[in-house]
Amino acid sequence: MSELNETHDPELSSWVSSANTPGHDFPLQNLPFAVFRRKGTDEAWRGGVAIGDDIVDLAACVVAGHLKGMALEAARAASGDALNALMALGPGAASALRLALSRALRTGADRVLADCLVPQAGAEFALPARIGDYTDFYTSVHHATRVGALFRPDAPLLPNYKWVPIGYHGRSSSIGVSGQAVRRPTGQVLPAGAQAPVVAPSARLDYELELGVFVGPGNALGEPIGLDEAEAHVFGMCLLNDWSARDVQGWEYQPLGPFLAKNFATTVSPWIVTMEALAPFRLPWSRPDTDPEPLPYLDSPAHRTRAAIDIRVSAALQTPAMRARGEAPARLSESSFRHAYWSVAQMVAHHTVNGCNLQPGDLLGTGTQSGPDETESGSLVELTRGGRQPLTLPDGEQRTFLEDGDQVTFSGWCERPGARRIGFGRVDGTVLPARQAGPR
Length: 440
Ligand code: MN
Known about the structure:
Elements: E1 33-38, E2 46-51, E3 54-57, H1 58-64, H2 69-77, H3 84-89, H4 91-105, E4 117-119, E5 123-126, E6 134-137, H5 141-151, E7 167-169, E8 175-177, E9 180-183, E10 186-189, E11 198-201, E12 205-206, E13 209-215, E14 234-241, E15 244-245, H6 246-252, E16 266-268, E17 273-274, E18 282-283, H7 301-306, E19 308-309, E20 312-318, H8 320-324, E21 330-336, H9 344-352, E22 363-365, H10 380-383, E23 391-392, E24 398-399, E25 407-414, E26 422-432
Parallel strand pairs: 6-22, 8-16, 9-26
Antiparallel strand pairs: 1-2, 1-5, 2-3, 3-4, 6-7, 10-11, 12-15, 13-14, 13-22, 14-16, 14-17, 18-19, 20-21, 20-25, 23-24, 25-26
The structure holds manganese (II) ion.
């Protein structure tokens, strides 16, 4: 796991003055990665690093000759239209680049990178990696219990939950970057009281407030990744919305789990915050005394010391009426990844215990991050108790599930005394009406 070093010093400031704004997501201590180009151009997509309101154009840095050694090698690997090559190099390369950029962007440094800056406001973003495989976990015991109670009131939490980091293989082809317009899916649903299903647009479209984990170096097929090595195989984390059609899910999910209720769209934030940037926000990993101890491959002293991460996440909704009046999105909930029952390292160790091979750029979802309190729920199905208790928004509008035109925005950040606050930026997506004709 990444250790604290000079790049985390909370006293550091940057000659890019916007980065020093209190509460900014992208101070010098963050330096997250994305793939971008200038908006409205046909420029090549390339990697960039956020600093304040700007982006350090890594391809331009390479051409300008401002970097050397492993930092140069890392920037070169990040100069293409996806970050897979950088991810494959491992944490040492990204860390060398982080250190070089931190030093070059500090107050007092020669401003040689000034010519390599692109304003974020004038940029558009692509998916940060070519995602070969996508797996979604279910790491919040609070989410699992609340959703389980809706589907199975008599047995909310299945007996395997406290032993197995539950997940399912999702679909990478429908993953999009923030700004994605999500067509309301049509599918098989079983109306209440009906004996047979119908095909209809989902009437219970929901979001899931999750974090994404981008895999760094992979493992050979047949070679598991040990728990204490797991984070060396992780590049960083982003925000993730696992759009979900609850009515489709309720009918189709047994016995093999999510299928068409989930694979029509998944939206990620453009920025990936590295595990190194998250180092100041680590916490001990523990579990209630009354719960079973993890099996040996999911447990270690080092893991217990600092495997949890306090990443705060929040969800907000802007209805078309709010948008028309120019009103900001209304916050629906807030929680933290610190409440997760399983850590990032446990997700990786479990995913590979059978020899399954992860590859650079693979994406792991954490599952909906709901906290212990009901108000900390990361999905509408929890906040509205299965659609039975509508939410009332600040303008008086009500929602049980998402309506056409609704925009869902997630944000994420880390803060604690003695560290500089860092943020994940945002991920947003808007619901489009179902296809008029429906399936034929
Ligand atoms: Mn999910």
